[in-house]
TrEMBL record:
Top-level taxon of origin: Bacteria
Species lineage: Bacteria, Pseudomonadati, Pseudomonadota, Alphaproteobacteria, Hyphomicrobiales
InterPro entries associated with the record: Homeodomain-like_sf (IPR009057), HTH-type_TetR-like_transc_reg (IPR050109), HTH_TetR (IPR001647), NicS_C (IPR041474), Tet_transcr_reg_TetR-rel_C_sf (IPR036271)
Protein name: TetR family transcriptional regulator
Domain HTH tetR-type residues, every copy: 23-83
Binding region for DNA: 46-65
Annotated segments matching region Disordered: 1-20
Entry keyword set: DNA-binding
Length: 222
């Protein structure tokens, strides 16, 4: 049209493609899978449900984890890594032997009480006879600092006569975990059989103190 100056067409600006952060996506899958496996077990855990909750395709799950079994192993590694990291923050080397033993007992009890899904996941892995843990180098490696920390407390205590010598740190670790684990894993059946309160704040505080006392009496030198 006369008098109208045509403006040159401008190329449309490309719409930036939002790319998922790989680590964030992987962690989201692990977090959701943790809840799914803890609730439904390995056999009942549903990768379709995990994908739907993460708003991704199931194919993407298997891009990060080659199989459901590998995903379950990774969930176990994540769960244990959280506990082991918390154990390292106890700084037991700065405490006197009795205080260190009691702190370790209280921490272990508190962790299990605060993480019932962790207890269920460990129970599920025991149903599978520990086969996923057996093939995980990472899980085996992360146990060493924990046992080493207990061993050092025992050695210091034995050197000053506060703790009797010859205690196996792995045996002590097993004893403590058995006591703390039971209070979560067997709570419902124990309460049903004996009408014994294991759930209230008062009952948990009493059990926590009893476990700390038991562990100290187990190791003390006199």
């Amino acid at each position: 049209m006369p008098g109208v100056t045509k403006q040159p067409l401008r190329a449309a600006k490309p719409v930036p493609i939002k790319r998922r952060d790989r680590e964030r996506t992987r962690q989201e899958i692990l977090d959701i899978a943790f809840e799914e496996f803890a609730e439904n077990g390995l056999s009942g855990g549903n990768t379709d449900a995990i994908a739907a909750r993460a708003n991704i395709t199931k194919r993407l799950i298997f891009y990060y984890f080659n199989s459901k079994e590998e995903l379950f192993t990774a969930v176990l590694e994540m769960a244990y890594a959280e506990m082991r990291a918390a154990e390292e923050d106890l700084h037991l080397e700065a405490l006197e032997p009795e205080a260190a033993i009691r702190r370790l007992a209280e921490f272990t009890f508190d962790f299990h009480q605060a993480h019932p899904q962790f207890v269920r996941l460990v129970s599920i892995e025991n149903i599978h006879r520990g086969r996923h843990m057996a093939i995980s180098r990472r899980l085996k490696e992360m146990t060493q600092p924990s046992i080493s920390q207990i061993a050092k407390v025992l050695e210091r205590g034995a050197a000053c006569g506060a703790i009797r010598p010859g205690i196996d740190p792995v045996e002590l670790h097993m004893t403590l975990n058995a006591l703390s684990f039971f209070a979560v894993a067997n709570r419902h059946t124990f309460e049903a059989q004996f009408a014994f309160d294991m759930s209230s704040s008062k009952a948990r505080a009493q059990r926590r103190a009893e476990i700390a006392d038991l562990l100290w009496r187990c190791v003390r030198g006199d």
